[in-house]
Amino acid sequence: MPQTTLSISTRGQGLYEFTREAETFVANHGGAEGLLTVFVRHTSCSLVIQENADPDVRRDLDAFFARLVPPSDHPSMSWVVHTMEGPDDMPAHIKAALTAVSLSIPVTDGRLALGTWQGIYLFEHRDRPHRREVVLHLSR
Question: Could you give the CA distance from residue 103 to residue 37 in angstroms, rounded to a whole number?
């Protein structure tokens, strides 16, 4: 079964689309039908399938998660114990626990069966830049 690892560079918190890279992998290795498994190899970022047409959706998601889980130096997060790696680290782990670290996407007629406005994103939850590894595995 074909498998590859993508390296995605981030510039801090936010959504980083890699739909084209996944589509290219499927086109180069796929058959007519199958299943693409996408897995991120980190505990402080996650994966989402989300709208890729209006950038306001990504901005609103960033704002929502920032309000839901603020940095650990925020007064509402005084209960957090894990703070050695900075005020963004434990909140990043919480955000990753609330979202997905793997996705399954059907392949139909040799293409990802995504909806018209759906894109595949790495959701970076840390403030500083990182290089993230995402494994793509195609099953037939």
Answer: 6
Alpha helices in 69-110 (DSSP H): 89-98
The answer for residues whose C-beta is within 8 angstroms of residue 30's C-beta and 6 or more apart is: 2, 107, 110, 138, 140
Q: Which residues of 38-53 are buried (b: 16+ CB within 10 A; e: fewer)?
A: bbbebebbbbebbbbe
Residue 77 per-residue DSSP state: G
Confidence of residue 20 (pLDDT cuts 50, 70, 90): very high
In tens, the pLDDT along 64-116 reads 999 999 999 999 999 999 999 999 999 999 999 999 999 999 999 999 999 99
What CATH number was assigned to the domain covering residues 3-139?
2.60.120.460
Q: What residue ranges do the domains of the chain occupy?
A: 3-139
